[in-house]
Write a structure and sequence with these properties.
Layout: E1 2-6, H1 10-22, E2 26-30, H2 33-42, E3 47-50, E4 53-54, E5 57-58, H3 60-68, E6 74-79, H4 84-92, E7 97-100, H5 105-121, E8 126-129, E9 132-135, E10 140-143, E11 146-148, H6 152-163, E12 169-170, H7 171-179, H8 190-205, E13 212-215, E14 219-222
Parallel strand pairs: 1-2, 1-3, 3-6, 6-7
Antiparallel strand pairs: 4-5, 8-9, 9-10, 10-11, 12-14, 13-14
Length: 224
């Protein structure tokens, strides 16, 4: 799952990104409203952590941009300004949650997880697709009650395909989702082919049908 942190306090960004990466999220950063606008228009994020008070403008403008472009990224407003007026304005502009500084990183992670579950999986802690069952908070994947040992990237790949079930997802979109800003630095799509191959093998070894279909010239689709 991919997170964008929009915050100008670099030490806070560093601590947030390090913690969330340990929780198996891909994290990208923007330190200004200008950089953030470029990113939100180019890419999709599972959750955006947004500071209202940015050096070159209000973070509320980012919310307006998301709304203008019909983007459905989850948003948590993070700010030292805990006024009711700003909180209400942000929520009315489409933010999903509000967290005042200072905050505990485990609480931030829990809020991110809750928004992703609500946005993509109807708020459930469990996800089931035929013989595949996933415990979302625990990031545990089972096939016919047999736990499948997936790497972080393989788990993220499975979740991304399930979130886009029955839709063709391009190789570029998957690569960008798994690796964020580093996707363009990777050697073609060799890393993606490797993750796809390993995920398919591990699911099959546990007794799963092959639901990951190659759509030649386009990408992949998770379907029966």
């Amino acid at each position: 799952m991919k997170i964008l942190i929009i915050e100008d306090e670099k030490e806070l960004v560093k601590s947030m990104a390090e913690f969330l990466r340990q929780e198996n999220y891909v994290c990208e950063t923007a330190y200004s409203a200008h950089d953030a606008e470029d990113k939100i228009l180019l890419f999709d994020y599972d959750c955006i952590l947004l500071d209202i008070n940015l050096p070159d403008g209000s973070g509320l403008r980012i919310l307006e941009k998301l709304k203008e472009n019909n983007k459905s990224d989850g948003v948590i407003i993070i700010t030292a300004n805990n006024s009711l007026e700003d909180r209400v304005l942000g929520l009315n502009l489409g933010a999903d949650d509000y967290l005042a500084k200072p905050f505990f990183l485990p609480e931030l992670s829990a809020r991110v997880s809750a928004i992703i579950r609500r946005k993509q999986f109807g708020g459930s802690n469990k996800l089931a697709f035929r013989e595949i069952n996933i415990d979302l908070p625990g990031k545990i994947v089972k096939v016919n009650n047999t736990e499948v040992d997936l790497t972080r990237k393989e788990y993220d790949l499975l979740m991304f395909l399930l979130a886009n079930k029955n839709r063709v997802v391009s190789k570029n979109a998957i690569a960008e989702h798994l690796s964020g800003d580093n996707a363009e630095l990777l050697d073609k799509f060799d890393f993606l082919y490797s993750h796809i191959k390993n995920l398919k093998r591990k699911l099959a070894d546990a007794g799963s049908e092959d639901y990951i279909k190659t759509v030649y010239g386009l990408g992949y689709k998770f379907s029966v």
